[in-house]
Every structure is written in structure tokens, then in C-alpha cells.
Write a structure and sequence with these properties.
This is Alcohol acetyltransferase. It comes from Paenibacillus pseudetheri. InterPro entries: CAT-like_dom_sf. The structure is a single chain. The protein has 11 helices and 15 strands. The longest helix has 18 residues, at about 120-135. The strands form 3 sheets. Strands 10-9-11-13-14-8-15 form a 7-stranded mixed beta sheet. It is of the alpha+beta class and about 425 residues long. Helix content is about 30%, strand content about 20%. The chain has 2 domains: about 5-145, 2-Layer Sandwich (Chloramphenicol Acetyltransferase), CATH 3.30.559; about 195-415, 2-Layer Sandwich (Chloramphenicol Acetyltransferase), CATH 3.30.559.30.
């Protein structure tokens, strides 16, 4: 008998706002030390199937809400042949909203955001890699860092943590102005170009600490400064640069859920020719510190859940809910941010797995209003800063990485998928 599940609070947004140019599909990839063995990877996918029931579901439309229905169809791995973060067509994917892809040394998991956030996707990828390496003949002590297939599904993995931690509270609403939006030339063949920059995680952390900052605040400031120096400085715009930073709520509100449990905080600044990078780093760090405080995060949970709990919305037909959600997303979300910077942090693996994994990459899908977004992840002291964009212009990226390599003095290794780059 098939089971069905309610979408978690954050997940309800994504089916309403998704289209071919705003796919809501992100990617987490592991670059391995050796080429991928397809048969072993398929075995691994078969093995983890029952451990992640919130992945092996199909999206169904109800009268008032979308919902998820369990499925027993196989996870079919596929060679990665197109640009990343494409719209997932369930009819060509056994009905699923995620994909397991491989190419040369890379194993990628692409996920429609209605299923889970970056934390859930990382846990799935870790389990997949563990069993893949096991089927390749490697013995690995899990050190309790892997969700094992035979451990059974924990009820805590399935919880909607937004509902668990919701509580009524007083929230002030602030009407923010529209953010600066990056403009550019669409690629001749539609798709996403990806540029990765690899730096030493420990050296970048030391540099950020020297500035009295965290890595996330430091890179948010540098990215904002790069946008000003390459774009705003030469325009008449006085709109603020706003970096949207997803925050893993599990750190403030303990939960083992494998569903979505994140909030988004906006780090904004109006930058002028008198603004220094050091000043911007300080401002971004103070803002991030305040906005990721538990009280402010509790407000985010309240705002996310309050509308869903409003009895007036319970019996509004789904097509009307979709219209209002889509309108709200563009007016209150897309228009209020310049781009997203998502730092999924350092990936913790069993010690015996590290030698098999070169890099972890995090790719954040671009959208109409945010044609360039940034993902950050690290493993083995290698921190990867990944820009995914659907426009030709690369001036912001060049300034950003040049500053990291020049003024910051870090060694930066750059590689790309070269999508849209003319020979």
C-alpha cells in the first residue's frame, strides 16, 4: 500500500514557483579520485533506496495542497550529459524529483528543493558514496557518520521540524526596497555555465578570522564589493546589493530531519565609492551574527508557518494558492535579493573515505532575477566556491577571484564546464 506525506512548510513554495528558467533544482557533487564504476554506483543506489523514503516519492496534486506519494520504482542512475540544475521532468525519471548522475570522476545528486535542503542531500550523497566504495572493494569504518541501509528509517528523519519548533511570537515586518539586479546576455543555447574556484579552507578561514569575520560573511562582502566595482560603480543605480544566505536551522533548533529545515537571511548594503572592503566585511559579519541569532531564526519559523496555519487559507483551491504564492515569491523574494550565496559547510566523512574524495561541489540554480548564484562547500581542506550562471558576462566572477588571489593572497584553482563559451 502506498504511503503519502504532506509537503513540509518550506517545500510548499517550490511547486508553485518552478519553471524551466527557475528550476528549484540544486546539485551536490563529489569529485572522486578514480573514474566512476557504473555498475557499483547502481548497486549503491539500489541499496540506499529504502533508507531514504522521503526521496523515493512522486509529487501529486490535491484539491487544496500538493502532496508526496511513495513509490517502489527503481532509482535509475544516468550519465551527466547536459548542463547542471536543469528542470527535472518526472515522466523521464521514473516519476522522481531527484537524479543520481555520473561523469568521469564525478557523482552528482540533483534535487528538486521540495524534497529536502542541502543537509538532506548531503546525507543521501554520503550514504550513496559509502556503499559505492564498499561495492568497489574498500573497507570503511562508518564512525557513525553514515546513514546505513539496514539501520531502518528513524521517525525523526521524517519530521516537519518547522511545525515542531513553531511558536506564536511578535514579529516586526520591515518593507525593504528592491535590491540591485544583475543584468546580462543570455547564452545563445540556453543552459547554465558553472565556474568553480578551489582554495585552502584553512587559509581562507584564517583570513576571515584576521578580519574578525566568518567565511560566509567574508565571501558575502567580497561578492557584494565585486558587484559594486564591476557594475554599480558605472551605473546610476543606488539600489542595495542584497546577498540571500540560506541558514541550516538544525544548528539552533536540534533536529535530525532529512526534509527541508532552513531559513533565509538577507545581508544587504548600499555601497558607495567611499566604502572599503574591510568596512563591508565588518558590516556583513555583524548583520549575519544578528540575523542568525536564535530569536531572529524563531521569527523566520513563525513567518514561514503562520500563513499555512491561517484557517482562511485551508480551503482555498490549489490553483489560487499557486497564483498567490508565485506573486509573493516574485514581489517579496526575487525582487528583494541580488543573488544567493549558500554555504553548506565542511562535509564530515569517515576517515577512510577522505582519500577517495577530492572535492565536494555545491551548485545553486540561477533564476530570472538572479542569473548568477553561488554555492560553497569543503572537504579535505579544499573549499570550492561555485558560481552557476545563465548569462555570458563573467566580469563579477573575474573581479571576485582576482581579489581572492591578489589582495587576499590565496592560491585559487579555477575550472569550469565551459557551457556557452565560444571557441
Amino acid at each position: 500500500m502506498k504511503k503519502w506525506y504532506k509537503l513540509d512548510n518550506a517545500a510548499k513554495l517550490f511547486p508553485s514557483v518552478t519553471n524551466t528558467k527557475n528550476t528549484s533544482v540544486y546539485r551536490i557533487s563529489a569529485v572522486l579520485t578514480n573514474p566512476v564504476d557504473v555498475d557499483a554506483l547502481q548497486q549503491a543506489a539500489d541499496t540506499v533506496f529504502d533508507r531514504f523514503p522521503m526521496f523515493t516519492v512522486k509529487l501529486r496534486r490535491g484539491v487544496f495542497w500538493n502532496y508526496l506519494e511513495s513509490s517502489t520504482d527503481k532509482i535509475v542512475i544516468a550519465e551527466d550529459q547536459q548542463y547542471p540544475c536543469r528542470n527535472i521532468d518526472p515522466t523521464t525519471n521514473n516519476g522522481y524529483l531527484f537524479k543520481v548522475l555520473y561523469y568521469n570522476n564525478r557523482v552528482s545528486v540533483e534535487v528538486f528543493h521540495a524534497l529536502t535542503d542541502g543537509n538532506g542531500a548531503v546525507e543521501f550523497l554520503k550514504s550513496l558514496l559509502y556503499y559505492y566504495l564498499m561495492y568497489m572493494g574498500h573497507e570503511i569504518d562508518t564512525e557513525d557518520r553514515i546513514l546505513l541501509a539496514d539501520s531502518g528509517v528513524d521517525i525523526h528523519d521524517m519530521e516537519d521540524a518547522f511545525r515542531r519548533y513553531y511558536k506564536d511570537c511578535y514579529v516586526e515586518s520591515v518593507r525593504n526596497s528592491r535590491a540591485y539586479h544583475i543584468k546580462g546576455t543570455a547564452f545563445e543555447q540556453f543552459g547554465n555555465n558553472v565556474v568553480h574556484g578551489v582554495v585552502s579552507a584553512s587559509q581562507l578561514n584564517a583570513l576571515a578570522k584576521q578580519k574578525g569575520s566568518t567565511i560566509t560573511a567574508y565571501l558575502s562582502a567580497l561578492l557584494s564589493y565585486s558587484i559594486y566595482q564591476t557594475r554599480i560603480k558605472y551605473s546610476k543605480s543606488n539600489a542595495p546589493v542584497v546577498i540571500a544566505v540560506p541558514v541550516n536551522l538544525r544548528k539552533a533548533f536540534p533536529s535530525r530531519t532529512l526534509r527541508n529545515f532552513f531559513g533565509v537571511v538577507n545581508l544587504g548594503a548600499r555601497i558607495t565609492e567611499d566604502t572599503t572592503l574591510d568596512e563591508l566585511i565588518f558590516r556583513m559579519n555583524e548583520m549575519l551574527k544578528y540575523k542568525t541569532g536564535k530569536e531572529n531564526l524563531q521569527n523566520i519559523i513563525y513567518n514561514n508557518v503562520a500563513l499555512e496555519r491561517n484557517k482562511a487559507t485551508l480551503f482555498v483551491p490549489l490553483f489560487l494558492k499557486n497564483w498567490f504564492v508565485n506573486l509573493g515569491f516574485h514581489m517579496l523574494g526575487e525582487s528583494k535579493r541580488t543573488l544567493t550565496l549558500s554555504n553548506i559547510g565542511n562535509i564530515t566523512l569517515p576517515q577512510q573515505m577522505y582519500k577517495h574524495v577530492e572535492l565536494i561541489e555545491a551548485l545553486v540554480y540561477p533564476s530570472n532575477k538572479s542569473p548568477m548564484n553561488c554555492g560553497i562547500s569543503s572537504v579535505n581542506d579544499k573549499l570550492v566556491i561555485t558560481f552557476t550562471r545563465n548569462i555570458v558576462e563573467s566580469d563579477i566572477l573575474q573581479y571576485f577571484f582576482s581579489t581572492l588571489a591578489g589582495e587576499a593572497g590565496l592560491e585559487v584553482k579555477i575550472y569550469s564546464n565551459d557551457w556557452g563559451i565560444s571557441e
